[in-house]
Amino acid sequence: MTFTSPDDVRHRLDTVDYLVDDGMAMALFLALRIGRPLLLEGEPGVGKTAAAKALAAALQTTLIRLQCYEGLTAGEALYEWNYQRQLLAIRLAEAHHERLSDADLFTAEFLQERPILQAIRHAGPVPPVLLIDEIDRADDEFEALLFEFLGEAAVTIPELGTVTAVRPPIVVLTSNRSRELHDALRRRCLYHWIDFPSAERAAEIVRRAVPGAGEPLIRTATEFIGGVRGLDLDKAPGLAETIDWVAALSALGATDLVSEHIVRTIGTIAKTPDDRDVVAAALATHRASPASAQETQP
Ligand SMILES: Nc1ncnc2c1ncn2[C@@H]1O[C@H](COP(=O)(O)OP(=O)(O)OP(=O)(O)O)[C@@H](O)[C@H]1O
Ligand SMILES: [Mg+2]
Fold this sequence. Notes:
298 residues; 5-stranded parallel beta sheet; two-stranded antiparallel ribbon; 46% helix; elongated; disordered C terminus; binds adenosine-5'-triphosphate; binds magnesium ion
């Protein structure tokens, strides 16, 4: 099962409530069509992780996820030998007065698959989606471990040989740009930068995520967030924060941003004391003059 056109991508992702613009639809279509990993970058909360989840849901296939972090090793990402099982096998053999050679011990039976090998060896009619999330959090040496996999959908295990995917997995890598990635990694991927969505698409995303929220609240809140994102904030609110805010406001019965207890919900969109002050000031301006509030935002 694959996509027939960028429009088909947009349509099928829409059915799983992931809304894409033309650029993202084209990036996903091309990555799948020419069989290359897709590297997604963008500010926090613009839907990088959600893209891979939505892709797997739309294709009705398995999502395999590798969350990267500092110190991530090949043993956690690719494969590991199951030493305990090997030891057990040696003891059992000894009990029967037999000796096991390396060839007996380093076989697929004693291999523990980690996400990348699991994606390569996945058996099924549709290849899985492998999400390598936040690759910039892993040490830069870790990237080199991925080159063979990203370029050839294969992993070489010294004791066993090269394992190549029968159906190469669909690979999505994400990065928040906390550090530069190797050129060699970028070269093996298609690249797409996800922008924060337009006010209209942000409103539609919130509408789907918070079905109970009223229309005026959704529109004013997403427009307000659009304006706030232009302010000098430590952490600009992403879609997750926008959804949380509208959900919180909706739970409190708010229908717009004017009522007084709105200020107490700021913790859903501002995540540092400084940001809290900036957002509170913007909200006060909005409440004083809701119609012209957007004009005061840069
Ligand atoms: N295009 C979209 N359509 C529908 N929902 C979206 C879209 N983009 C983001 N979302 C929603 O926003 C939430 C946050 O997105 P996500 O966690 O994927 O962001 P991210 O870019 O991975 O952020 P981070 O860099 O912090 O990991 C998702 O759970 C999803 O509900
Ligand atoms: Mg993410």
